[in-house]
Amino acid sequence: MPLKKRLYFLLFMILVLLMQQPAFPQSFDHIKGAVREFTLDNGMKFIVLERHEAPVVSFHVYADVGSANESYGITGISHLLEHMAFKGSKVVGTSNYEAEKALFPKMDELYDKLKREHWKVKPDTALIAELSKELEALRGQAKQYVVNNEFFDMLEREGDDAVNAYTSNDATQYINSLPSNRLEFWMSMISDRFLNPVFREFYKEKDVVMEERRLSLETQPIGKLIEDFMATAFKAHPYHHSIVGHMSDLENITRQDVIGYFQKYYIPSNLTVGIVGDVNFAAVQEMARLYFGRISSNPKPERVRTVEPEQWGERRVKVRARSQPVLLIGYHRPNAGHEDESALEALANIIGQGRSSRLYEVLVKEKRIAAQTGCFSGWPGIKFPNLIAFFAISTPDHTSDECLAAIDEEIGKIKQESVKPDELQKFKRTYKKGLIDSMKSNASMASLLTLNEAVLGDWRLLFDDLAKMEAVTAEDIKRVADKYLVEDNRTVGEIIPEESSK
Amino acid sequence: MTLIKYTRQAIFLIFALSIGFNGSAVAQKGPKDEFLFPELNPIKMPEIQKVTLDNGLRLFLVEDHNYPTIGIRGQVYAGSIYEPPDKVGLASITGTVLRTGGTERMSGDEIDKELETMAASVETWIGLNSGGISASMLKDDLDRCLQLMAEILTKPVFSENKIELAKINMRTGISRRNDDVNEITGREFEKLIYGGAHPYARHTEYATVDAITRDDIVDFYRSCFQPNNMLLAVWGDFKTKEMVNKIKRVLKDWPAKPVKLPPKPEVDYKDRYTVNYINKPDVNQSNIMIGHLGGLMNNPDYPTLIVMNNILSWDRMFKRIRTDEGLAYNVWGYYDSNYDYPGVFSAGAQTKSASTVHAIELILEEMKKITEQEVTDEELKKAKDKYLNSFVFNFDSQAKIINRMLTYTYFGYPVDFADKLKEQVEKVGKADVLQAAKKYLHPGKVQILVVGNKEEFDRPLSTLGEVNVIDITIPQAGE
Fold it and tell me: Of 3.40.50.150, 3.40.50.2020, 1.10.287.3510, 3.30.830.10, which CATH number belongs to A315-501?
């Protein structure tokens, strides 16, 4: 073949190779190498992974604000704000924003008056009734301009399979999954949501959140236990209150409170976005600049300043309920990213995850005092110092005290003899497989990338932390058991059955 | 496919370039502006291989080389619907101890240890209308996992020790079955619809658990875990031909055996209006469930019901009772259809005690309204658009695709059932929805269940009709 033709042929082959999908199994390096990022001038960071297996894309917006940012009087506000983030904007969710807008200050003023009357030592019930009636009338007026759940409808109409959000102690996260040709639509909807939010239907949505508190907490014995348990384990740090917030706080939070909270925390540098799926990086970057670049930057809010001090002794909490016994134990541990993290994860897995774990072998199989038992770490959040926790669901005719004694015995064994090589292998292999499995879905991948970026400061740690896990030794586990699993460092909580609950 | 993909990329490049050159040439679109969506990239349909082994085992395989893992799911014709009424729990315990009870070669504990050290899992179960085995592993462990799976399937020993352990677990569940108000509501509502002793609603009692023997378990296992009674799907990082040979080899001593299952239970439901109450004085919120019998997925009206359900649950129940009225966090209205037995139509919510009867009235109002007036053009379009535009998500993973095929095949549905549904949903009109609502929803003949604290209700439940109080005290063993 003449030289020229050979060159063209070579070029053609190179082009063909470049165009093909990789046919080899993706190693972590391969996936890691495909992730790209950019940060807008206003500080908002985007992490993008192109995956063209199917014509779909998942979006994950991680707002670095959760219930741990709340203080007394506004517990539950992060979660309430999450609800309000679905109420639309100046454009979405309304048939006449100008008319609506005029009513909000009047409604808020009335609400304020109502509250102040309630707080009085001798509230004027007739006045309260009158003010409530006026507020209800204004609410009715504003309601006529509301397009019910338009935000949800607009996204679902375009095929959003997963429009949702959730609030945790650490963060508020918003998810969408759309056919991949809807990229610009997502950019428009979600940038509009954070640029021009309107917290309409505020009072009714508070009612909804109060029902949510009843549903997930007040009518659930375990929900009640967890609320009291956290309040006991954390005397200072805001991990001590529930995500849904105290009922009295919910009753008193105002629209202005929520607006202020939004303006303080939903600033671009506090938002991290993960986009994984059938998209083109260049297009994502250009659109993000165009749509999200409109949001003006603001100073980063102050980090939670309170640090939970060391416990001076074991703490105990009891919840009496119509329920069989439940045992919960929590030992304080450091935040994610600490050098003891990997050893603590290994400890939790070996002692309390799986049928071959120490606790299951002894409490469930051998002694038969628990039907379920285990250990989990990173609770209730991971951004701040948190807990490594143990639980036991006792079998009939056995008690939480027996379970506590048995758990203590197993912890003692680890402190004495540490763990075996095959147990270490179980942890390391489980971590690796777990990591692989968690990367399979676009939504899960987008979530993990933003989590690692926001909490640990670098999305690459999603992959790099594997090395730390694989380096854990039996000595490390013994060391952290000695250091953290100490009686003075723990809180023990239990559900005590009410007499009539059998 | 490549051409389309690069055309789309070309469009984006032009978009990008135009911004680069002209700065403000491209303006942001508002959410309600018109968007010109490029054509969606095509869905890559994987090739699913089907092989039937000599012993009758039907294999489905699809390769996926993106991750070094393998997933397996086998399903057998089985179910708790076939267990005798005095031994409720037999099917479940058989499914559990098949895995935990050990094999001729290894004890259950040894299997637990080996699997977990490999970070692999093998699980077996028997549920209401099916049973099966599933496995997940890193591809390096395929041979060992296949071997363990085969031993569990063909040489289980059902040790007395592990049977007793499973029974203790069941007894624990019984003793705790009234601790969660949601669990109470769901369980008791099913009993209202199907009948408390009916296979589709009955549950274990201490007496039925005590009555189960090892012989019962072994017989039950033999009645359904046979190769000619099993469909097995495998997906992941392997070569199909190699996998088929490995499975053949590891199951070569598992011959076909005759399987004769009893007929499925009949459901004989009579539409009626009842009001039922369960006293739960420790809650400040009522759990409400209202409904009657549902349907089957092979009903020609099923596509219309998909559209009706979306509108009823979302546009009517959620938008009004949650968003407008603030009465609940969770509220729905849904005519449920199953593959092989009638589902349940239910509407419900959880609302503070003081709005209990008010919420019930609103739910009944919405149920009635959709049977009397056509839905709006907008509601119809939105429900259909949602279904049709999100249809692509049915195909976003090999695991999803092959498991759906397995399920359709198991229940005797055509493999293209989902695609046919899509075609039919496209054609649904307002008149169809009204007709279906009239035919399948019976707002005048519903069973109402309320679990809560009547001392704090807005009005007595008796304003809705004669109240039947249900006693959920757990019968002790020997009662």
Answer: 3.30.830.10
